[in-house]
Design goal:
single chain; alpha/beta; 6-stranded parallel sheet; 44% helix; globular
């Protein structure tokens, strides 16, 4: 999906790590004429240099959901799962209606729905999160730092610093605004997907587990401020924007 499977495969081999210690995820991009889910995944496995992945995600419901092909696409996903080419299957950027379409008649439920998630899309995302909770589908989040990276002057600008100060006093050690946002995501039981090329950012993310939890009042304050601005950065066409 991101044209990085060959380099990732090289990194896996260079790491010397046994396969059992790795959790490898890849995605299905929209199929081109003549392509199949199985054929596409097999090509990904060849590039990665592995026999299976741990999680295989449909990157987007489009264009299958506009062509009446979402159910058949999910059946193909179930096929590669049953063939042992992936340990779990899931989706990404699926709305409530997309999930309902594949859940109706599904033999294997999606393990994960990976969506953009932060306080500036929470009001729109909450119905998706609630439906996933009902079916035991794990939410994986991306774009969680949007409020401080892409909208630093937004309504959360007056809320996050005070929460950070409280957390620093409680912890007795520095806390960043990014860690406050990650703790909010953790409060939603979301897996946090993050990317960076900076080692200090990786250390900051890993250190978040040492930051105290947010209080219910702090969670509510974040969501109240977040509701004052709607800002979706990714997959706007999927959501009709």
């Amino acid at each position: 999906m991101y044209n990085n499977e060959e380099t990732l495969g090289a990194g896996i081999r260079a790491s010397g790590k046994p396969r059992s210690e790795l959790f490898i995820v890849t995605k299905l991009r929209p199929l081109q004429p003549g392509q199949t889910v199985k054929g596409t995944l097999k090509e990904s496995l060849r590039k990665l240099g592995v026999d299976y992945v741990d999680l295989f995600l449909i990157h987007t419901p489009r264009p299958a959901n506009t062509e009446g092909k979402l159910k058949s696409l999910w059946k193909e996903m179930e096929g590669v799962y049953n063939d042992g080419l992936t340990k779990a299957i899931g989706v990404s950027n699926f709305r409530v209606e997309d999930l309902q379409e594949i859940l109706d008649g599904a033999e294997v439920l999606p393990a994960v729905n990976q969506i953009e998630l932060h306080p500036y899309v929470w009001k729109a995302a909450e119905p998706i999160v609630e439906l996933c909770k009902d079916y035991g589908i794990v939410i994986a989040s991306y774009g969680g730092q949007t409020p401080i990276v892409r909208a630093p002057d937004g309504p959360l600008g007056s809320v996050l610093p005070a929460i950070r100060d409280r957390l620093e006093k409680t912890r007795g050690a520095p806390v960043t605004l990014g860690q406050v946002l990650t703790k909010w995501l953790f409060s939603k039981n979301a897996i946090v997907v993050t990317t960076t090329s900076k080692a200090n950012r990786i250390k900051e993310f890993l250190d978040t587990e040492n930051v105290p939890d947010l209080t219910p009042e702090e969670i509510q304050a974040i969501e109240s401020a977040g509701s004052k601005l709607y800002k979706r950065v990714y997959m706007t066409r999927v959501f009709g924007e």
